[in-house]
Design goal:
The protein is of the alpha/beta class. It has 14 helices and eleven strands. The chain has two domains: 245 residues, Aldolase class I (TIM Barrel, Alpha-Beta Barrel), CATH 3.20.20.70; 75 residues, Non-ribosomal Peptide Synthetase Peptidyl Carrier Protein, Chain A.
């Protein structure tokens, strides 16, 4: 059983990655329903939390059905991160997570996210201060390095473990790679298999099928896998992976009716949580993925992303199984 502190998260946990503008409570709800073992909030600005900025505070919203859940924070100032961690702890998550991996320019080039990989002593000091500031287990998500010439991930893992983190997730790319190229899991395995490392090590990057999940589990020996982009519009991936691990067989792909049901659940929660205008608007990024692979779907996608009315969206979604059923029967989605 894998544990983060005293929190049991499964024999081989599947984690939902914290993704900005994606991993909100409505999205987390459908991922939890479909097998995610541990989830994280979108990353939250430490400065925003300290200033009580509405957008940052809103991201602290967590629900009992999501547990266990971690709140992820980012920032470049040690005192601010310490304060933000204490504020996040008041929201009562199971875990406080530190983002040392975001590659986006406006974050990384200010020394936050993956930017701190250029200053490992500061990373260690910041982490130590956060661990001291909270009673919850502290975890970290990071990348291999800033670029190929700065990969010191084993050293990073040892230093962070030494100051008290309880688990480490490693995205197998450098900051320079952004999300391009292939994730290098051999470097993740070096950390996991190092004799001085005893905390759980989770791998992240390129897992988009049950076969790949099993292969990487067996080859690289990680304690669990974090899934990000592959879950967008396809939360079923968690249970599909678990079923494949147990049986060696594939679960039947979600039917069109199931796709509509989950899309509606996601939409309902989005509107409930954010209000109709914002909830409808922010769902638009998900429709393409929920109905990916359906022939001739573009006109309906256009309807979905151009409609401002929640009730009209429900009506459009209700039409989809009947209109596209013949296409689905003729081609696998």
């Amino acid at each position: 059983m894998v544990k983060i502190g005293n929190i049991e998260i499964g024999e081989f946990p599947l984690l939902l990655a914290p993704m900005e503008d994606v991993s909100d409570p409505p999205f987390r709800a459908v991922c939890k329903e479909n097998g995610a073992d541990l989830m994280y909030t979108e990353f939250i600005s430490s400065e925003g939390l300290i200033r009580d900025a509405a957008k940052s505070v809103e991201k602290l919203d967590i629900y009992d059905y999501e547990r266990p859940i971690g709140i992820q924070i980012f920032g470049d100032k040690i005192h601010s991160m310490r304060q933000a961690a204490a504020i996040a702890e008041e929201a009562d998550p199971e875990i406080i997570d530190i983002n040392y991996g975001c590659p986006v320019k406006k974050v990384a080039c200010k020394g936050a996210g993956a930017g701190i990989l250029l200053d490992i002593p500061k990373m260690q000091e910041m982490t130590a201060e956060i661990v001291k500031a909270v009673n919850k287990p502290v975890t970290v998500k990071t990348r291999l390095g800033w670029d190929d010439s700065t990969i010191r991930i084993v050293e990073v893992a040892k230093r962070l473990q030494d100051v008290g983190i309880q688990a480490l997730t490693i995205h197998g790319r450098t900051r320079k790679q952004m999300y391009k190229g292939v994730a290098d899991w051999t470097k993740i395995a070096e950390v996991k298999n190092h004799p001085d490392i005893h905390i759980p090590i989770f791998g992240n990057g390129d897992i988009d099928s049950p076969e790949k999940a099993l292969e990487y589990k067996n080859v690289y020996g990680v304690d669990g896998i974090m899934i990000g982009r592959a879950a967008i519009g396809y939360p079923w991936i968690f249970n599909e992976i678990k079923h494949y691990f147990e049986t060696g067989e594939h679960l039947e792909r979600p039917s069109l009716a199931e796709r509509v049901r989950v899309t509606k659940k996601h939409l309902d929660f989005s509107v409930e949580w954010k209000g109709e205008i914002k909830g409808v608007l922010e769902m638009r990024r998900h429709y393409t993925n929920y109905f990916k692979g359906i022939p001739h779907f573009k006109p309906y996608r256009t309807k979905l992303v151009e409609t401002d009315s929640y009730m009209e969206l429900l009506s459009i979604l209700d039409e989809i199984p009947e209109v596209f059923n013949e296409y689905v029967e003729q081609s696998s989605i």
